[in-house]
Amino acid sequence: MHIYARLPDHNFNMKAIQTFWTKPFIKPASCSFESRYQGGFNDDKQFIYTWALSLLSIKEFFPKVHLVTDKEGKKSWIDFFEFPYDSYSTELDKISDLPTDFWAAGKLLTYASTEEPFVHFDVDVVLGKLFDISMLDYDLVVEFHYDDRYLKRYDKIIQKLISSNAFFSKELLIKFKNPSFSYNDYNLGIMGGKDFHFINSYANKAFKDLNTNLTLPKDKITCSFLNCIYEQHYLYVETKMATKKVNTLIENSIQFDVDYQKQKIEEGVNQFDFVHFHGGYKRLYPNKSEIWLKKLYPEFFNQIKEKIAFIDSKKLK
Predict the structure, then answer these.
(1) Is residue 184 situated within a structural domain?
(2) What is the DSSP string of 86-97?
(3) Residue 3 lies in a domain
(4) CATH number of the domain that 148 lies in?
(5) Does pTM top 0.70 for this prediction?
(6) DSSP secondary structure code for residue 224 in this structure
(7) Number of domains in the chain
(8) Do 200 and 114 meet the contact criterion of CB atoms below 8 Å apart?
(9) How far apart are the first and last CA of the chain?
């Protein structure tokens, strides 16, 4: 059933993918947002409702959606919750020995191993009725560009990482130590493109360097940002070095601390292109996904609600 009164575009040749690495969810490094405890949401329930809505909204536009996960993820989301993915793989079992702090590792492995044009959607991205799939039809596409030149919120964190002997390439370390350095990255809530060879190359390099950090900072905010550097900043750096054109779904760079999604979220799924509940948005609008899922897909909402109730009943015993 397609709520948006349209069929998926079978002529669109990019593979739609989502990723879930179980370890940071069931064994978080701490009970904090920075460790992605409860998926970064106030509670597990909101994480599950958001993911379900994310998947169903993607299926409004794509004929098939693939999940990259591990055996535990397959048991939870495919078998128990019966999320309607068209295919799945459990290749993330190969990173089961990595520290749970490396929550970006699963996505990097997906980026590195997908050998065909693809679009990856985070499980907290919801596509609205006004989403234009043609916006994805480029060699490289990301959600938006973040420019820290004015806020400078990451300068001290980067210095902490350097002081803690976090591993960075020689070239990157020189840039970080340059007094004129200003942090930039790409938000990858939605990312991909036709140039999958370049994406594979960037992700392999980022994954290798991330995995080199055997001694992690004790400060969880600093440690969490290590993931952003390797997933988001690395892509920014690699595209600049290779002079690759990157298309952003949000045209203007994000430079100031404003609620740039407020109007879209308040208007609802029939009036926006997409919403990404990243960072503080998970807690700023904690119940929106539950409300939208119940309204748009009541049958699946009730199915999930019953399964959550079953889990809660087991916890009480």
Answers:
(1) yes
(2) SEEE-GGGGGTT
(3) no
(4) 3.90.550
(5) yes
(6) H
(7) 1
(8) yes
(9) 38
Angstrom distance (rounded) from CA 78 to CA 140: 30
The DSSP code for 7 is: -
The answer to whether residue 127 is domain-embedded is yes
* Three-state secondary structure call for residue 152: coil
pLDDT in tens, the chain (317 residues): 577 766 667 677 899 999 999 998 887 665 554 444 456 788 889 999 999 999 999 999 999 999 999 999 999 999 999 999 999 999 999 999 998 889 999 999 999 999 999 999 999 999 999 999 999 999 999 999 999 999 999 999 999 998 888 888 888 999 999 999 999 999 999 999 999 999 999 999 999 999 888 677 777 778 889 999 999 999 999 999 999 999 999 999 999 998 999 999 999 999 999 999 998 899 899 899 999 999 999 999 999 999 999 888 776 55
Length of the chain: 317
- Burial (CB < 10 A; 0-12, 13-18, 19+), residue 119, is buried
Residue 168 carries which side chain, given as an amino acid letter?
F
